Amino acid sequence: MATEEVNKPPPLPSYPQLILNAIEALNDKNGSNKTSISKYIESKCGDLPADHTTLLSHHLNRMKETGELIFCKNNYLKAGASAPPRRGRGRPPKPKVPLPPGVVLSPARPRGRPPKDPNAPPRSPKPKVASGTGKPRGRPRKMARPEGGIGGSSTTIIAAAVRPRGRPPKVKASALPEQNWLM
Fold it and tell me: Best exposed site among 35, 61, 75, 107 by fewest CB in 10 Å?
């Protein structure tokens, strides 16, 4: 049992710590790329897991998202005081112009329609202005059909009411008179 503990290699530091150590040791002014970081970690720590490249990519992306590292031109830089501030996506907001001293802003108007004054006198309704043509606006109402028709006899109204709307049905072949085509 004592021999197993002796042969056991020391535990690896965390991947973020390994990555930061590699970037500090490589000390490149433009930053270090993923392959150089990976080679440095492999040279320092002999026993690495089989999925080392996947773990390295995952931790580099996570550190980039949290702001511990800056990704610039395919290189990773350690974020420091001299590093430019991290910008979000989209257009940056306009800078606010400072007001001169002594200027007091009026309170902002509330949004929406202002409430009615309960103490105000009731307003008289507006008189309706008739249009110049004398006709009402919009589509005219349907008129009821007159009993006798518009100058026609009652038979035309009945015939019109019996015939269905639309295209007439096709005449069946049995109703046609037979013709002798072969003469």
Answer: 107
